[in-house]
Fold this protein.
Amino acid sequence: MTIEDLLEKARNGSTRAVGRLLSLVESPRRDEVLAVIGTNTARVIGVTGPPGAGKSTTIAVLVAAYRQRDLRVAVLAVDPSSPYSGGALLGDRIRMAAHINDDDVLIRSVAARGHLGGLAAAVPAAIRLLAELAYDVVLLETVGVGQSEIEISAVADPTVVILNPGAGDAVQAAKAGLLEVADIVAINKADREGADQTVRDLHAETDAPILKIIAARNEGIEELVAVIDDYHRDDSPGRRAARARAQILSLAQSALRAHGGLDALADSVATGDLDIYAATAALLDQAGFGTGSVASEQARGQNENDVSALQ
């Protein structure tokens, strides 16, 4: 079956065809799919936070809120494990059971590592495909640890960080880098002791809007959706350019990570034959950049500024 055949079946409601197309954009055949689809866009909302914060429960009620607006919704759960072994996020699908039989809701896991080369390579293509298939909103879920959060901030508009009340949670979130990518912070399980103190602590750490919600009881979700809408309406060409720049750099990083000369250069640094700066310049030269150490230093500085540019 050709990609065009799969697209036709997917547009006619075949969830199996949608799944096969998503598998293709997560594979070396990604460019074949992108070549035959348009440039439609969907709203992308990132949801992240530490394990156990209630991300999947929050996403489930957000899906319900957008379905009440008659919008088609896709959920991409970024699985930190391999695409074959499953993982915690796959297990969390049961929390979205209310939407399993809804033809206008798609729930899909995307591997964040392994043969896919990282979140950056797979997710933008998946979002573009879902927009082509008339999904209006894409919710991205990550586990709240590692590089995926920086990459999600380059794609999502906005990124919502879910935290729980508790002594020191705000400080721990700041140390983990979560607040650097937070456009909105939601304190879930806000009926627990310490919620108000957590809000006060967070105000000292971030300028992002902070809301209290109880996702399991669908409390505070209307307010959360309203803040998400406000953020989306306030988007600007400068912010879109910052996201695009961060995506480009993230994809370039994935390509460099997979470059055939990286291991040999790393061995040379480990044995003392090359210093780290010369090795970086050599890797860029081998990859066709031909830029040398000065440009590599500039690229490193720009990469460090990208997260703050997205705020």
Residues 238-309 form one domain. The chain has 14 helices and seven strands. The chain has three domains: 1-37, 38-235, 238-309.
